[in-house]
Design goal:
The protein has 232 residues and is α/β, with parallel strands linked by helices. It has a single domain (6-231), classed as Spore Coat Polysaccharide Biosynthesis Protein SpsA, Chain A. It has 7 helices and 7 strands, in the order βαβαβαβαβαβαβα. The chain starts with 5 loop residues before the first strand and ends with a helix. The relative contact order is 0.15.
Length: 232
Amino acid sequence: MNLKDIGIIIPAYNEEDHLGTTLKTLKKLNIVKDILVIDDGSIDRTGEIAIEEGAKLITLNKNRGKGYALKEGIGHLDNSIIVFLDADIGDTAKEVIKLIYPLLEDRADVTIGKILPTPGKGGFGIVRGLAQRGFESLTGQKCYSILSGQRAFKREVLDKDLLNYRRYGIEFGMTVDLVQRNLRILEIPIDIRHRVTGKDYRGFVHRGKQFWDILMVIMQKKISGFFQKEAN
């Protein structure tokens, strides 16, 4: 596996305040070959900043959601390792190295960034609790980083079928599928910081959407599993 054949995909929606720092940090890592930004229908300068920083850019004509953006992105990169990163992680993007080396050393097929919660910030753990209980129910395993958007994949295990989930269901659904494919997954502690959704009105709306999207994936997979059992 080529040490410098690393491709990074960053889905971004109205991230003009953070994307520049994230890209500047990634460009300093000589292990990274390609950086692709998927501008998911932004109405700010997200796309312009991506171009200014020398990243490859795909612009979607409207906001289609993270799963759609990632699916579009993997069709444009053929690197031996593909990394998904959030746009708002700024100078902590350098932590991506920790996700890449276990793949280069063939200790895993997929790595997921395990980010410690910020004390005193965030929600009440309801969404995370639903995700973890749902994940254990569907797979019989535990995963503490189900909702993390920071992930690295060997290219041969990454396909578009992993990304057929809407909005906030993408990480949860993808992780269930990875386990069900019996892939080697490592959760890697990383010191990445990004925007924290607070306990204000916008925060409750955001978490409500997360909860609903994850619940829909759980129900979809439960129903699918039931009919598979009936068919057998």
